[in-house]
Amino acid sequence: MNLKLEQSTINNQQSKIQISGSKSESNRILLLQAFYPKIEIENLSNSDDSQVMSEALTTSSHIIDVHHAGTAMRFLTAYFSIQNGREVVLTGSDRMKERPIKILVDALRTLGADIRYMESEGFPPLKINGKSLTQNKVTLKANVSSQYISALLLIAPKLENGLELTLEGKITSVPYIHMTLSLLKEVGIETSFIENIIKVSPKSSISNQKLIIESDWSSSSYFYSILALSEVGTKITLSSYKEHSLQGDSVLAKIYQQFGVTTTFFNNRIKIQKRANINQKTFIEIDLSNAPDIAQTIAVTCFALGLECYLKGLHTLKIKETNRLLALKIEIEKLGGEVSITEDSLSLKASKVIKSQVAIDTYNDHRMAMAFAPLALRTSLIINAAEVVSKSYPGFWTDLKNIGFQISE
């Protein structure tokens, strides 16, 4: 499904939006619920990824296909490795078979797991023979994807002797590690994170728990971008958010102050408002090593505002649904921008022109579709394979229409 977005303006009278629960929190809590059935979940994400995770944890099938869900692939690799006596084949889309998982598999093998590669060494699909793991010490490079680290931490309380995880070097994506540890603590599991050593104690069972999942901050990023491109005075209210969030992407509230957008917290909601226009000579430089998922949104915001920017800390973007750095470069340059990329950074030159009627390719990546959508406030464009947003935000296009975007097939 390709969607045409005409140049639009925001309707301030219809700008209240309910965003589904965080995909990151949902997938962690779903795995914990599989271990501890007394956990009750409220405001679960309605994303494809969380649906895939939920189905995989409840199926009795021998073959489990996670499609494009990278988080599910990492978490389920760890989960099935400790399901004693159960054998599964864990597979995914063609792109998933290109996404490395060797670091996690090696760590699990160190703990005693029985995992084999079925096609290419270091990549899915995997054949996993579940067993009880008694080893409890493992070391990882600290700059690896936080999902590898979280996968190990989530199964740790079900290991006979818990887990002692040592991280070597500078740690990246720290907020996601803290999110995992906070959720473990919330259900009564003892953890510690001192210097570069994380310890998780074993726990066989827990008492009844209700966990309320905060709405997804990554999904809110597109509305921050929309506000940045809107007239001064435009505002949108989003639910349900906490001022003291577990999600690393909550740094959006601070980052978008640079674009003249303020955030007010009230009654588990946020009101975001365009307060001022930004000076065209402003140079934006941001280290996103703790929040790489919002890089696409910020890059497109800067391009649309004609700002020069330098975004760094993006080394994990190459192994996402697509190589996001390369995809950003290709699509922004279609629109008339000038982008250069390295292994972990993106530089954008200030641009005075935005081409119209450009078709944006989305590369099976939900964030490509949603990050470029706010450009409809400046020009008309086409989003190819727009249905890809269902991976994290199925109602995205409906919500945009409700606030004034003119969208047609």
Detail the topology: elements first, then pairings:
Layout: E1 3-6, E2 16-18, H1 23-35, E3 39-42, H2 48-58, E4 63-65, H3 70-81, E5 87-91, H4 102-110, E6 114-117, E7 126-129, E8 137-141, H5 146-155, E9 163-168, H6 174-186, E10 191-194, E11 197-200, E12 209-212, H7 217-228, E13 235-239, H8 252-255, E14 261-266, E15 269-274, E16 283-287, H9 295-304, E17 308-312, H10 324-334, E18 339-341, E19 345-348, E20 358-360, H11 366-372, E21 381-383, H12 396-402, E22 406-408
Parallel strand pairs: 2-13, 3-12, 4-5, 8-9, 16-17, 20-21
Antiparallel strand pairs: 1-21, 1-22, 5-7, 6-7, 9-11, 10-11, 13-15, 14-15, 17-19, 18-19
Protein name: 3-phosphoshikimate 1-carboxyvinyltransferase
Subunit structure: Monomer.
Family: Belongs to the EPSP synthase family.
Please characterize this protein's 3D structure.
It catalyses: 3-phosphoshikimate + phosphoenolpyruvate = 5-O-(1-carboxyvinyl)-3-phosphoshikimate + phosphate. Pathway: Metabolic intermediate biosynthesis; chorismate biosynthesis; chorismate from D-erythrose 4-phosphate and phosphoenolpyruvate: step 6/7. 3-phosphoshikimate binds at residues 23-24, 28, 145-147, 173, 293, 320. This is 3-phosphoshikimate 1-carboxyvinyltransferase. By secondary structure, this protein is α/β, with parallel strands linked by helices. The protein folds into two domains: 3-15 and 215-224 and 280-408, Enolpyruvate transferase domain (UDP-n-acetylglucosamine1-carboxyvinyl-transferase, Chain), CATH 3.65.10; 23-212, Alpha-beta prism (UDP-n-acetylglucosamine1-carboxyvinyl-transferase, Chain), CATH 3.65.10.10. Helices cover 29% and strands 23% of the residues. The protein has twelve helices and 22 strands. The protein has helices at residues 23-35, 48-58, 70-81, 102-110, 146-155, 174-186, 217-228, 252-255, 295-304, 324-334, 366-372, 396-402; strands at 3-6, 16-18, 39-42, 63-65, 87-91, 114-117, 126-129, 137-141, 163-168, 191-194, 197-200, 209-212, 235-239, 261-266, 269-274, 283-287, 308-312, 339-341, 345-348, 358-360, 381-383, 406-408. A four-stranded mixed beta sheet has the order 20-21-1-22, with helices on one face. A four-stranded mixed beta sheet has the order 2-13-15-14, covered by helices on one side. Strands 4-5-7-6 form a four-stranded mixed beta sheet, covered by helices on one side. Helix 11 (366-372) links the parallel strand 20 and strand 21. Helix 1 (23-35) runs parallel beside helix 6 (174-186). The longest helix has 13 residues, at 23-35. The radius of gyration is 21 Å and the shape is globular. It starts with a strand and ends with a strand.
